Amino acid sequence: MSLTSTKERNAVLIFVVPARRKFVVLGDTGIHDKVGQDCWCDIVRIVSEKFKEGNFTDGLVNGIAAAGEQLAAHFPFHAERDSNELPDDVDFEPPT
């Protein structure tokens, strides 16, 4: 499974590498086509502001909330048809 494995291509990944003091926000094509690059820049700004203060939890919570708002606006939840399409664990193994 990968970021591009969802039916509507609307997965969002916020990947943090604490040892390098870096993070990245990635949106698959389905959500990116709806929100554009400015949305990702805004989320990066939201997370960065809190990270610079040393408030990593609030940075992630606020970034996730901002991404969630965009997902809810463009891909509203429908309980009868929606499911968690991607595993919640992190797989560090390269694809075979």
Structure commentary:
The structure is a single chain. The protein is an alpha+beta fold and 96 residues long. Helix content is 45%, strand content 12%. The chain has a single domain, classed as Roll (Diaminopimelate Epimerase, Chain A, domain 1). It has a two-stranded antiparallel ribbon with strand order 1-2. A hairpin with a 4-residue loop joins strand 1 and strand 2. Helix 1 (29-52) runs antiparallel to helix 2 (56-74). The radius of gyration is 14 Å and the shape is globular. The mean pLDDT is 91.
Write a short abstract of this structure.
The protein has 96 residues and is α+β, with helices and mostly antiparallel strands. It has 2 helices and 2 strands; from the N terminus they run ββαα.
Overall helicity? 40-55%
Helix and strand pattern: EEHH
Query: How would the global form be characterised?
Result: globular
- Uncertain segments: none
Task: Report the biggest beta sheet as strand number plus sense, adding barrel if it closes.
Answer: 2 strands, antiparallel
Any chance you could write out the topology, listing elements then pairs?
Blueprint: E1 12-17, E2 22-27, H1 29-52, H2 56-74
Antiparallel strand pairs: 1-2
Helix pairs in contact: 1-2
Which tags fit this structure?
2 helices; 96 residues; alpha+beta; two-stranded antiparallel sheet; Diaminopimelate Epimerase, Chain A, domain 1
